[in-house]
């Protein structure tokens, strides 16, 4: 009898076929199908004690179809010998491209220009004047996979001057021409014309970008966030935009999600808003699903999955 894998994510057919060769895969959001599974593939669900209790003692792995795992109680998983994993390589390129798209869209006032044509509105060229980003300063907050790729695109492709802040960044990290590391977040905020956030959500990064941070930023700067909504204090962002201190924002994430329809951010013409879809591309979904398949197959073969979030969980239930 094949082991059971429960997935609330519709996996890419190629990856699904790979898992089905070694396991019975149940694709459903119904938790009643969860008991008896050896691996659970998570999309947006919260993995807590209640989830783990329902899954029962057979569960060996919870794997996030994506990079963020703030909704997974990793210590609770480790305490039960359950491996918590993710697919950090999968969303990198798609999310980086989306970030740059948001940046250029607010800089070029794409939403406003599109609206005047669609609705036959009067306009002036002065009223739709955009910003040329070459030689502008981009501040990259967080230099993980996505932050690195955004830095490459903007420094090498757009010829922006890029400043990077990451408290965990190795002093000898390799940067492209046109990029430099700064020692403090305030230094980055004070110099940047555009700030893009690529920090994971944790107690330390919750509301990292707040009223104080917006006060440090240049008047007329732009904020881009394709990481996690609560990294930015949304009420503070609204105030900074309404006051005119910020010129605009490009957002793929909100707090909460989805944002309420009367959220002021959705009414502002200088805000580009997308519904947390940065990684949702053909290749992005393929890579994430393949990352899931790789690690589920490793687990069922008794091998250590590639991206175990908490190394202390290995060896866990595998007993090796």
Topology:
Elements: E1 4-7, H1 13-20, E2 24-27, E3 39-42, H2 49-55, E4 61-64, H3 74-79, E5 83-85, H4 92-107, H5 110-118, E6 137-141, H6 145-157, E7 161-165, E8 179-181, H7 185-191, E9 194-197, H8 211-216, E10 221-225, H9 234-242, E11 246-251, E12 271-273, H10 282-300
Parallel strand pairs: 1-2, 1-3, 3-4, 4-5, 6-7, 6-9, 7-8, 9-10, 10-11, 11-12
Structure, described:
By secondary structure, the chain is of the alpha/beta class. The protein has helices spanning 13-20, 49-55, 74-79, 92-107, 110-118, 145-157, 185-191, 211-216, 234-242, 282-300; strands at residues 4-7, 24-27, 39-42, 61-64, 83-85, 137-141, 161-165, 179-181, 194-197, 221-225, 246-251, 271-273. The strands form 2 sheets. Strands 8-7-6-9-10-11-12 form a 7-stranded parallel beta sheet, with helices on both faces. Helix 1 runs parallel beside helix 10 and helix 4 (92-107) packs across helix 6. The longest helix is centred in the C-terminal third of the chain and has 19 residues, at 282-300. The two termini are 23 Å apart.
Descriptive tags:
alpha/beta, seven-stranded parallel β-sheet, about 15% strand, single chain, five-stranded parallel β-sheet, about 325 residues, 10 helices
In short:
With 320 residues, the chain is α/β, with parallel strands linked by helices. It is built from 10 helices and 12 strands.
